[in-house]
């Protein structure tokens, strides 16, 4: 199971694995299940999984399946179709897992909303939190953003931009933490204002440190994971840098009991802890 904020390459990783194995990739969305009446949903679920059980040597990707496997906790009201699908998916996923002839993934942005039973061993072997690339990856390998190889002569502008950004943020730990939370696509969008692959290094250099920092602060108001949304956590744990929070223990249930607002970054950190605890 792959979970994490939007834009963290959950879909891409399944395609890359299929390419690496040289296996076909089959993508299945909720629309495949919910065509027609409730009776049709039951038939469609049987048909889809029977077809999957007949396959061997393929990568199966269940995408955006949140509505079909929602939690059945009493506090959550599900419609009849969702209740049915949550229940009927459990044995079918177990059968697909036990056959062991395909590799399958399920992706979601909000794994805490999945029914707990679906995440137990025997259906998924690994719950993997997908987060943004490390800051060092974004800056040291910035040429990847522009689809270049390290030895491509055009990558020199990207190398220059990465070096300049490190210099601009050297004594700005908060801005470094915020940029580390940028997804690949968010980082690429932010860089567009400075130039393309042929001019990005010169463009970053021309704005100078103070202007770059101002532009980053402004842009970070519109990304998925905002460092500013973590201030409320200081009521529960002591932290100064983002790295500190990755050594602390807190769960969504603990935070819900304290009536805290569960922003995307708080959900991400809780998911990251749950993923890490498996190893």
Please tell me about this protein's structure.
With 279 residues, this protein is of the alpha/beta class. The chain folds into 3 domains: 128 residues, P-loop containing nucleotide triphosphate hydrolases (Rossmann fold, 3-Layer(aba) Sandwich); 88 residues, no CATH class; 46 residues, no CATH class. The protein contains 11 helices and 5 strands, in the order E-H-E-H-E-H-E-E-H-H-H-H-H-H-H-H. Helix 5 packs across helix 8. The longest helix has 20 residues.
List keywords for this structure.
Rossmann fold, 11 helices, single chain, 279 residues, alpha/beta, 5-stranded parallel beta sheet
Note the topology:
Elements: E1 2-3, H1 10-21, E2 25-28, H2 38-53, E3 59-62, H3 80-99, E4 103-108, E5 128-129, H4 135-140, H5 156-168, H6 173-180, H7 184-191, H8 200-219, H9 242-245, H10 252-257, H11 264-276
Parallel strand pairs: 1-4, 1-5, 2-3, 3-4
Helix pairs in contact: 2-3, 5-8
What would a concise description of this structure say?
Helix content is 45%, strand content 6%. With 279 residues, it is α/β, with parallel strands linked by helices. Helix 2 (38-53) links the parallel strand 2 (25-28) and strand 3.
Structural class: alpha/beta
How much is the radius of gyration in Å?
Answer: 22 Å
Biggest sheet, strands in spatial order? 2-3-4-1-5
Q: Counting H and I runs of at least 4 residues, what is the number of helices? A: 11
The residue fraction in helices comes out at 40-55%
CATH architecture of the largest domain: 3-Layer(aba) Sandwich
| Share in β-strands | 5-15%
Mean pLDDT: 85
Shape annotation: globular
CATH class of the largest domain: Alpha Beta
For this structure, the CATH topology of the largest domain is Rossmann fold
Total number of distinct structural domains: 3
């Amino acid at each position: 199971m792959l979970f994490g904020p939007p834009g963290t390459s959950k879909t891409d990783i399944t395609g890359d694995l299929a390419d690496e194995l040289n296996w076909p990739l089959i993508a299945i969305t909720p629309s495949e299940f919910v065509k027609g009446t409730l009776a049709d949903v039951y038939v469609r679920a049987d048909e889809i999984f029977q077809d999957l059980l007949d396959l061997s040597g393929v990568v199966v990707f269940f995408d955006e399946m949140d509505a079909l496997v929602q939690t059945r906790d009493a506090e959550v009201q599900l419609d009849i179709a969702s209740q049915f699908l949550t229940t009927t998916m459990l044995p079918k996923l177990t059968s697909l897992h036990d056959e062991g002839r395909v590799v399958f993934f399920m992706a979601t942005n909000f794994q805490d909303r999945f029914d707990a039973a679906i995440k137990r061993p025997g259906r998924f072997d690994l719950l993997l939190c997908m987060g943004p690339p490390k800051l060092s990856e974004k800056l040291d390998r910035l040429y990847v953003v522009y689809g270049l190889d390290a030895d491509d002569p055009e990558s020199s502008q990207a190398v220059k931009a990465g070096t300049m950004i490190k210099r601009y943020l050297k004594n700005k730990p908060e801005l470094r933490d915020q940029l580390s939370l940028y997804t690949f696509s968010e980082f690429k969008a932010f860089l567009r204002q400075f130039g393309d692959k042929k001019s990005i290094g010169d463009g970053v250099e021309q704005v100078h440190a103070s202007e770059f920092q101002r532009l980053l602060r402004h842009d970070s108001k519109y990304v998925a994971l905002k460092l500013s949304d973590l201030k409320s956590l200081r009521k529960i744990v002591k932290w100064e840098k983002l790295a500190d929070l990755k050594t602390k223990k807190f769960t969504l249930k603990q935070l819900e009991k304290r009536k805290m607002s569960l922003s995307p970054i708080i959900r991400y950190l809780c998911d990251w802890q749950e993923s890490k605890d498996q190893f």
